[in-house]
Amino acid sequence: MNYLREINAFVDWLETNPLDAITQALWFHLMAINNKCNWPEWFAVANLTLQARLGVDKKTVIKHRNILIQKKLIEYKNQSKTAGRYKMLSVSARMGGINPPPREPQEYGRGSPLYRWPEENTGGNSPPLRVAEDPVSGNIPLEPEPTAGAGGNFPPIRGPAQDTGGSIPPNRPPTRGPDRSPLDKPNQTKPNEEDLYTIFRHWNAQRIITHRKLSDKQKGHIRARLAEGYTVDEILEAIDNYAAVLHGDEYYWTHRWRLDEFLLHGLDRFKSASDPRTNFLKDKSKAPRRAQGGVNKYAGYANRTVTYHDL
């Protein structure tokens, strides 16, 4: 399946088959996830992942998923306690943009349907194929055979231009082509229980909202975020940022989430890449100024006084 061809075909299909904006967004997210997984026929996506991407609840995801199923854009298999499995149905094939099947190799001789006689009239607008004939005999000349040199030997077969020895270069191993796999692959390593409890214990240590035990719902949210590509360290850093903003008087954010709510709504806001310790300041003028590139470009310099003659 070709990613760009499917997107273009889907946009063309929408011109005569309008869909709700959330339904369109769900199709685009499913297509992007399938691309990240390197185009398996069936791939698993948790409802929590789609909820986080679309910013809607579970019932809304199910509603718009059923619309895509009814429109025969996807297929879905319910896996009860595990993430459901999806299959993307080709829109370009439905729109007639599927690639034609490979043609059998044919010989370009007089027995081939592609062969034209020298003076054949095709009946179309284009002129017939003409071959140079001998002006005396009228025969089509054959390709001249190589002639021997002065010493009676045929000239050697020459290789590429860089080969000056006149011999065919030895076989070389095939050059490896570019990597066609997606650049942004999801985290395909299954998280272990210790990773889940590491995040849970770190959350309770920040004293935001303390939980007595790690529930199955919270485990599902952690697994969904790890499956999206977040690392354990990135989630711990986001929790630290959230706690610092929540407990700091210089920040305006005061809403307290539970762990599962934070993973669903707050992780993207408070990850270090989003710079939450600057974005949530009450007074942005107090934000520390950074040199270009995010580092102090004068680090390592020492101030000293010199006279004019030393310059």
Structural write-up:
The chain has helices spanning 3-14, 21-36, 47-54, 58-70, 91-94, 193-205, 216-228, 232-247, 259-270, 276-279, and strands at 43-45, 74-77, 84-88. A 3-stranded antiparallel sheet has the order 1-3-2. α6 (193-205) runs parallel beside α8 (232-247). Among the domains are: 3-94, Orthogonal Bundle (Arc Repressor Mutant, subunit A), CATH 1.10.10.10; 193-286, no CATH class. A hairpin with a 6-residue loop joins β2 and β3. The protein is mainly alpha-helical and 311 residues long. It is built from 10 helices and 3 strands, in the order ααβααββαααααα. Helices cover 36% and strands 4% of the residues. Residues 98-103, 105-109 and 181-185 have low confidence and may be disordered. The longest helix has 16 residues, at 21-36.
Q: Estimate the helix proportion, in percent.
A: 25-40%
The major beta sheet can be summarized as: 3 strands, antiparallel
Order of helices and strands: HHEHHEEHHHHHH
As a percent range, the share of strand residues is under 5%
Give the strand line-up of the largest sheet: 1-3-2
Determine the N-to-C terminus distance.
Answer: 67 Å
Shape: extended
Total E-strand runs:
3
What structural category do the secondary elements indicate?
A: mainly alpha
Number of H/I helices? 10
Q: Compute the gyration radius: what is it?
A: 34 Å
